[in-house]
Amino acid sequence: MEGLKNKIEVDSLMPEEKVTEGHRAGFVNIVGNPNVGKSTLMNDLVGERISIITSKAQTTRHRIMGIVNTPEYQIVYSDTPGVLKPKYKLQESMLGFSEGALTDADILLYVTDVVEDPEKNADFLDRVAKEKIPVLLVINKIDLVKGNEQLEEIVANWKKRLPNAEIFPTSATENFNVDNLKARIVELLPESAPFFGKDALTDKPARFFVTEIIREKLLLNYDKEIPYSTEVIVEKFDEKEGAIHIMAVIYVERDSQKGIIIGKGGEKIKKVGISARQDIEKFFGKKVFLELFVKVEKDWRNRDAKLRQFGYIE
User: Fold this and answer.
1) Which of 21, 37, 59, 274 has the fewest CB atoms within 10 Å, counting from its CB?
2) Nearest to 212 by CA among 66, 69, 3
3) How far is CA 264 from CA 135, 221, 296, in A?
4) Rounded to the nearest 5 degrees, what angle is found at the Cα of 201, between the Cα atoms of 8 and 72?
């Protein structure tokens, strides 16, 4: 992982590298309902861990780009929040990221799985069915299917729902059929110069991945609504040659949540900090000093000013 930070600094949107004739480049947007494996698939396609992966739904809040480069092509993947009916303003913003992915893609990956009802969030699916760009329907988690007959029935039902889509039964966790999906994506890329520098891995800054790692630990260590009520902001990122000093604030909506996050004698927040620090050190390949604080911002998920401050509203 050493030197990975150099990959995540996008130097220019107009790269100066000499591009070979016939070079391909395009945006491949990944959409679908929560908890169908979009983030796992994204990380598999990119070859690096970009998105949060947990067993809990609605873990992705932003559009996260992962960029794959070869001399012949550049693929800009975009992982989006799961499509859901908003219950508060944060989820309205998350739905906006997903809907925006339908308007700026060269190729659309609609991800479902073997247990999902094809009519779930039918309005969004109707929009996907009307797309003029290539749509690749990824039926994930086929390792859970009992026999070919069941799989054939699932494929047939989805073929009726998205008749113009190419269907790829896959298992992202088992890396089954992902290579064939990658090959088809490359075939469908339009001829274009690259959109980002050829050494770029993502469009997100280093601080973003620190917040995502900490947020993942919150999802893994707390139950029910607690992790969904949190937001993480990096207030200090002081990088020197041999180490990084990071100060981050975990925002919650209520005083009672602050007590739960901290835990008795600070035990819970200490566990989160140790686990996050270890992953951050692996990510950057150097020593990390991590300080975590917890603050209350009442009802921040429904406040436009806070959603704007936290990057959910432009």
Assistant:
1) 21
2) 66
3) 50, 14, 18
4) 145
Round to whole Å and give the CA distance between 215 and 250.
Answer: 9
DSSP annotation of 83 reads P
Q: How far is CA 126 from the centre of its chain?
A: 23
Q: What is the CA radius of gyration of the chain?
A: 20
Q: Which residue has the tokens 């790692």?
A: 213
**Residue 18 burial by Cβ neighbours in a 10 Å radius (0-12, 13-18, 19+):** exposed
Which pair of tokens denotes residue 205?
A: 């800054």
Residue 262 has φ and ψ, to the nearest 5°, of: -70, -45
Q: Which of 174, 85, 109, 165 is nearest to 155 (CA)?
A: 165
DSSP labels, 254-298: SHHHHHHHH-GGGHHHHHHHHHHHHHHHHHHTSEEEEEEEEEE-T
Contacts of 20 (CB under 8 A, 6+ apart): 71, 72
What is the Cα–Cα distance from 197 to 17, expressed in whole angstroms?
Answer: 8
Structure confidence by residue, pLDDT tens digits, 49-97:
665 444 444 444 455 678 889 999 999 888 776 544 545 455 455 445 5
